[in-house]
Write a structure and sequence with these properties.
Elements: E1 2-4, H1 7-18, E2 23-26, E3 31-34, H2 40-50, E4 60-62, H3 65-68, E5 72-73, H4 76-85, E6 90-96, H5 99-105, E7 110-114, H6 119-128, E8 130-132, E9 134-135, H7 147-153, E10 159-162, E11 173-178, E12 181-186, H8 192-198
Helix pairs in contact: 1-6
Length: 199
């Protein structure tokens, strides 16, 4: 089912997520696919839909940095950059402190997390706090900014939240601070140079 990304659509999508369903939604970078991160069955479905290797952990989207502190621990550098860039196209790998999430996501101690800068996604996150938020594509293939392309190519989810074409130039940049040193796992919209200027 496809719905518009308005108040009614967001209500439906949050209900689907809370009931263990899978939703495709727009973000500030590309169309994402997500579910309740505490629901192992839903997480397994996302791996299957994306043909993603089970060894690759799934990232989390949070409503705000304050909400994120419920499940992750920020070091000084991560806190500093999150305050300046979130909501925005930056994913930070942080220490996961929520034991239930570790079990559901099948991770030992770290998770990739970000706060997206998109009103529709934030509306959804306001109702759910956290959702798994990975790109809505087949692993290894390009991500989608056009909802029609995404709708035609991805299947077996429960609800498509259509927010129109995303005027984006790529995916989020993924970073981690290891012993105070910046490591870039994936350079996306934000370049290393831009990040270093902010620090």
């Amino acid at each position: 089912m496809k719905v518009k990304c308005n108040q009614e659509g967001i209500e439906k999508a949050s209900g689907v997520i809370k009931d263990g369903g899978i939703v495709i939604f727009p973000t500030d970078t590309v169309y994402g696919i997500g579910c309740n991160p505490y629901n192992r069955k839903s997480i397994q479905r996302i791996y299957k839909i994306k043909s993603r290797e089970r060894t690759k952990s799934l990232p989390i989207l949070a409503f705000s940095k304050e909400v994120a502190t419920k499940i992750v621990e920020f070091d000084r550098d991560s806190e500093n950059i999150a305050k300046k860039i979130w909501p925005g196209p930056l994913t930070i790998i942080l220490k996961l402190t929520d034991e239930k999430l570790k079990e559901a996501l099948n991770v030992a101690d770290k998770v990739a997390i970000r706060v997206p800068n998109h009103q529709c996604t934030l509306g959804l996150l306001e109702k759910c706090d956290f959702i798994v938020g990975t790109s809505a594509n087949i692993s290894g293939s390009r991500s989608f900014s056009n909802p029609e392309d995404c709708f035609k190519n991805i299947h077996d989810y429960d609800l498509f939240l259509d927010g129109g074409i995303i005027p984006s130039h790529g995916e989020s940049t993924i970073i981690e601070f290891i012993d105070g040193k910046l490591k870039i796992h994936r350079e996306g919209i934000l370049t290393q140079k831009e990040i270093l200027k902010i620090l």
